[in-house]
Design goal:
Elements: E1 2-8, E2 17-20, E3 33-36, E4 39-42, E5 44-48, H1 55-71, E6 94-102, E7 105-113, E8 118-127, E9 129-137, E10 140-142, H2 162-169, H3 173-185, E11 186-189, H4 195-207, H5 209-221, E12 226-238, H6 250-253, E13 260-273, E14 276-281, H7 287-305, E15 308-311, H8 320-331, E16 339-343, E17 360-365, E18 371-375, H9 388-393
Parallel strand pairs: 5-16, 5-17, 11-15, 15-16
Antiparallel strand pairs: 1-2, 1-6, 3-4, 6-7, 7-8, 8-9, 9-10, 12-13, 13-14, 17-18
């Protein structure tokens, strides 16, 4: 469960930006909250703003930190560290800090680095009080009370995350929790047309009849009535180049390794209307229905697994009522401990009947070409009964495109 994320000097974020899922004192829609110890945490968060304001860059920053942790262990001596500093401060450190809950334990992880070395890295966990797992200043590392980490600091290159090195060399429960969180509990969709998402839904349907019924149920809630989903995958082999199309150049055929294996797929939706059923190949469905199919496997995974899904431009190819229904999968389930965070241009979601004031965030480009973020709750004087859509269009909250006549 995501609690808070901070970044500085990453792409359009020149200055530090803090994005939090900790609930404010807003009394609207208390059922939208997850109880976690002393904090109430939001299930849903929307991010509005004009193009090039930094909305996507926030999700991208979280995605990059996930990538950094998962792949830092591949760094070799002398390798440059991948990073994307703001164009005006390329010589200064890039910074990330994330707070999250995994297995009922709150963790804080942070890192500061430049092109060549990690200048600072830290990891804490909270159970009644703060506990140090490790603190790092360049190559000086304090492991707190974790004596089992002794000697692992010597294996850590200056351009490699200590967290990633620990994941290689220790079976410590906290380290396992954290790596598991970044690998599996943070699901980030920056490109909604990724064939992997569709494959994931297909494989999920094949593996479990029970989950297939859940998927059909979600289609129903999103306005598409189905009586069945048929997924068939068959593996075939071409033993030699003679099995390839005859019009392929011979030199092209020679580049393949034989036997050549490939998968043939058939996905059909059995549409239901009264007493009538109609079978339609998924490729012949509308882009909106195809997109529901792409995302539904991941949604099932998130809802059943207490995870966080972040989606860039949720509204693309979706009817506004579909988006409303997706959000209600999260906010209407009182027992759910999963979260959805998304960027959007859909002004129909600016509605306090649907979302709390702290569930509505804005991004805008500020001074020095630096993105900044703030929530509707941060703006003074926004009433519970206010027409926030009209107020936003009229410029009261900022974060609007600078259009010329």
């Amino acid at each position: 469960m995501l609690i808070q994320f901070k970044t500085k000097n990453y792409k359009s974020y020149l200055e530090e930006v803090v994005f939090t899922m900790v609930a404010s004192k807003d009394t609207l829609h208390k059922t939208h909250l997850i109880k976690t110890g002393n904090d109430d945490v939001l299930k849903v968060c929307s991010i509005f703003g004009p193009n090039a304001s930094g909305k996507t860059n926030l999700l991208d920053a979280i995605n990059f930190l996930k990538f950094f942790i998962n792949y830092s262990s591949n760094s070799k001596v002398g390798d440059k560290i991948i990073r994307f500093p703001h164009k005006l401060t390329s010589d200064e450190n890039t910074e990330f800090e994330i707070i999250f809950i995994k297995e009922n334990v709150k963790y804080v992880y942070g890192v500061k680095y430049n092109d060549t070395y990690i200048s600072e890295e830290y990891l804490y966990y909270y159970k009644e009080r703060e506990n140090i797992i490790f603190e790092r200043k360049k190559q000086k590392i304090n492991n707190g009370k974790f004596t089992s980490f002794k000697g692992i600091d010597k294996k850590t290159l200056e351009n490699k995350l200590y967290l990633s090195t620990l994941a290689e060399w220790t079976s410590n429960e906290h380290i396992k929790n954290i790596i598991e969180y970044f690998r599996n509990d943070l699901i980030i969709l920056l490109n909604f047309s990724n064939p992997w998402y569709r494959d994931y839904t297909e494989d999920t349907i094949i593996k479990s009849i029970e989950v297939k019924e859940e998927i059909i149920n979600i289609f129903e809630k999103l306005g598409v009535s189905l009586s069945d989903i048929i997924v068939e995958k068959t593996r075939s082999k071409i033993e030699d180049y003679k099995g390839l199309p005859v019009d392929l150049p011979e030199e092209f055929k020679a580049k393949f390794s034989y036997p050549l294996e490939f998968v043939q797929k058939k996905v059909e939706l059995v549409r239901e209307s009264g007493d009538l059923n109609m079978v339609i190949n998924l490729n012949q469905e509308s882009r909106g229905v195809q997109k529901i199919f792409e995302i539904v496997g991941l949604l099932i995974d998130v809802i059943n697994g207490e995870k966080t899904i972040l989606i860039d431009e949720l509204e693309v190819s979706f009817h506004p009522m579909v988006i409303d229904s997706i959000l209600r999968l999260f906010i209407d389930n009182k027992k759910l401990n999963s979260q959805i965070i998304f960027t959007t241009h859909n002004l129909g979601l600016l509605d306090l009947e649907l979302l709390r004031r702290d569930e509505i965030w804005f991004a805008e480009m500020g001074n020095k070409f630096s993105s900044r973020m703030y929530s509707l709750w941060d703006i003074k004087g926004v009433r519970k009964d206010e027409n926030i859509k009209n107020a936003y269009i009229n410029g009261r909250y900022g974060s609007l495109p600078n259009m010329r006549d």
